Amino acid sequence: MEFMRPATWADALAAKAEHPGALPIQGGTDVMVEINFDVRRPEALLDLNRVAELTEWDTSGGRLRVGAGVPYARLIRELGDRLPGLAQAARTVGSPQIRNRGSVGGNLGAASPAGDSHPPLLAGDAVVEAESAARGVRMIPAAEFYLGVKRSALEPDELIRAFWSAPASGPQYFSKIGTRNAMVIAVCSFALALHPEERRVGTGVGSAAPTPRRAPAAEAFASAELDWEGRGPLPDAASRRFGELVADAAAPIDDVRGTAGYRRHALAVMARRTLAWAWNDHRAATPERRAS
Ligand SMILES: Cc1cc2nc3c(=O)[nH]c(=O)nc-3n(C[C@H](O)[C@H](O)[C@H](O)COP(=O)(O)OP(=O)(O)OC[C@H]3O[C@@H](n4cnc5c(N)ncnc54)[C@H](O)[C@@H]3O)c2cc1C
């Protein structure tokens, strides 16, 4: 197996153009498992660890641009205040060792329906920055990135350079169900982001369909139902309906981790709870306005 180790992003793109079959490796927490278990035997490995800019983040035009290789541990430490939903998800990934190596870029590259980054990226309207030597940069909204089980919109000659996201403008939550408390692949997961300036609710459903996906009908319902002006309490009936609509958006299967019925039920509960938590946080931060 050939092993390539470019030192610059331009060299990495050139190597991928020349060897479209080369498998990128960042933290290696998916790639090495697959190689060790003989799940795949790539013709070449393209090690991106020397490309320093992949592990940097900055802000541009009020948005965060986070390098594909920034490990979860740094994301939690350095961006937890600005991307709280993603940081919550990152805290549930694997173990400290996995969080020190694993990255959002690798989660996107693997495009597993169970990947924990995906629901918060969807709820927060993140955009994936992909690039190829031949066609340059392509900005792919997270909602258009996932095409099938472990299939993404990435072309064979493209690499993920970064993801973009606005810093949270309201409360965000991530909730995950596993068969134990840590080191666990999600049975199902859910992320919610309030976007108060746009009076909008964002959602992301994980591990309950062939791809991570949003729940558009639930988003529209909650966005219309929440009392953005008066900041009144969330009626129980509304949070229950929101939960039902999130569950309806899923297309789960029965597998070793859980049944389709359990996943639907769990999603409804997680959706109901995260909406209540987020709305209560929002109300606490911005007191209720009573009509005088
Ligand atoms: C013990 C263990 C526990 C785990 N627990 C979780 C968990 O709780 N939640 C979870 O979501 N995942 C979990 N994982 C899976 C894995 O840690 C994550 O998917 C992680 O985000 C992968 O990141 P990485 O940098 O290690 O990716 P890598 O293994 O380096 O790469 C993963 C995939 O992305 C591709 N890739 C990497 N970088 C790029 C790039 N810049 N451009 C294009 N493609 C790229 C690779 O070719 C590969 O297909 C676990 C893994 C292990 C071994």
From TrEMBL:
Q: Which InterPro entries match?
A: CO_DH_flav_C, CO_DH_flav_C_dom_sf, Diverse_Substr_Oxidored, FAD-bd_PCMH, FAD-bd_PCMH-like_sf, FAD-bd_PCMH_sub1, FAD-bd_PCMH_sub2, Mopterin_DH_FAD-bd
Record domain FAD-binding PCMH-type: where: 1-170
What keywords is this UniProt entry annotated with?
FAD, Flavoprotein, Oxidoreductase
N-terminal signal peptide: none
Q: Is Transit peptide one of the keywords UniProt gives this record?
A: no
- Which Gene3D superfamilies did the record assign? 3.30.465.10, CO dehydrogenase flavoprotein, C-terminal domain, Uridine Diphospho-n-acetylenolpyruvylglucosamine Reductase, domain 2
| KW Flavoprotein (keyword) present | yes
Please give one Pfam family short name: FAD_binding_5
Single Gene Ontology MF annotation: FAD binding
PANTHER family associated with the record: XANTHINE DEHYDROGENASE SUBUNIT C-RELATED (PTHR42659:SF2)
Under which name does UniProt file this protein? Answer: Xanthine dehydrogenase family protein subunit M
- This protein's species is Actinomadura litoris
